[in-house]
Design brief:
The N terminus is likely disordered. β8 and β9 form a beta hairpin. The strands form three sheets. Strands 1-3-10-4 form a four-stranded antiparallel sheet. A four-stranded mixed sheet has the order 2-5-8-9. The termini are far apart. The protein has one domain: Phenylalanyl-tRNA Synthetase, Chain B, domain 3 (3-Layer(bba) Sandwich). With 270 residues, the chain is α+β, with helices and mostly antiparallel strands. The protein is globular, with a radius of gyration of 17 Å.
Length: 270
């Protein structure tokens, strides 16, 4: 791969360039034989709750594939971005906070250590190392969420959208992000950052890192892979609809990706 966390230029990208709602398509298939299973009961005391048809947060369509750079797809079979567009606007749901509180009550310092040995978190830690990220410095999404629950003393409530995404990652260990589909130029996908591309970080600073993986559309990079969007593509409080995007790495079963999107979509309903 060359430099850690960097992927060489010149790789082609299978990237659609049309606007509008994502078309229906086949379900994302991010894993292969021998994939990691989903077992969170031992960690958080119960399985994930799935949204049901006709319930809250009913999606406009089922999960469909975002695109992945051809070079990345070859190097990391199973890397995928599954997306789902959901109606809005986002509204407060006390049931989401109750579920977060129940999870927080089961999290102890030992939980964070045990979590690393679970199949799904271990798959993300392994992928981090493969692309030059140190999971002990830049924590994987589920480890970061567990850490927030520990250090904040329970449940933070920055807003219903953040709560919905946090619930999804805590119940499935699979990260889900939110984008504003009205700001996108075609479907989002995963590719290496290009020379000269810069992204807005959480502190408002613009930074570039050619070769580091990003989520992008036809117009350019939207955010670092496993990072939240803070510029173009970031949803606001009244954004409707919302585009949910789940990042799967090699070894993650498709049923887990579907479940993560179900949970986030269900938590976003009114």
């Amino acid at each position: 791969m060359g430099r850690p966390g960097r992927l060489g230029p010149g790789r082609r990208s299978r990237q659609p360039v049309r606007r509008g709602r994502l078309p229906p398509g086949r379900l994302s298939r991010p894993g292969r034989e021998g994939r990691a299973g989903i077992d969170r009961g031992r960690l958080f005391g119960r399985g994930a709750q799935r949204s049901r048809p006709g319930g809250r947060g009913v999606p406009v369509s089922g999960p469909v594939d975002g695109w992945v750079d051809l070079g990345l797809e070859t190097e990391f079979p199973g890397l995928s971005l599954a997306v789902r567009e959901c109606d809005g606007p986002v509204r407060f749901d006390p049931g989401v906070q109750e579920r977060l509180a129940a999870i927080a009550s089961r999290i102890r310092g030992r939980t964070a250590i045990e979590l690393r040995r679970e199949p799904v978190p271990a798959a993300y830690r392994a992928f981090y190392r493969q692309v030059g990220l140190d999971p002990d410095v830049e924590m994987t999404p589920v480890e970061a969420a567990v850490g927030r629950r520990l250090f904040d003393g329970g449940v933070r409530t920055p807003g219903p959208l953040t709560d919905a995404l946090e619930l999804a990652v805590l119940e499935t260990c699979i990260p889900v992000y939110a984008l504003d589909p009205g700001a996108l130029d075609g479907p989002p996908g995963i590719r290496p950052a290009r020379p000269g591309e810069q992204l807005v970080d959480a502190d408002g600073a613009r930074r570039g890192s050619p070769g580091r993986l990003v989520i992008a559309d036809a117009a350019g990079a939207l955010c670092w892979l496993f990072g939240e969007p803070h510029g173009r593509g970031a949803p606001g409080p009244s954004t409707a609809p919302i585009l949910l995007a789940a990042v799967a790495v090699p070894g993650i079963p498709p049923m887990g990706v579907d479940e993560a999107l179900d949970i986030a979509a269900g938590a976003l309903g009114a």
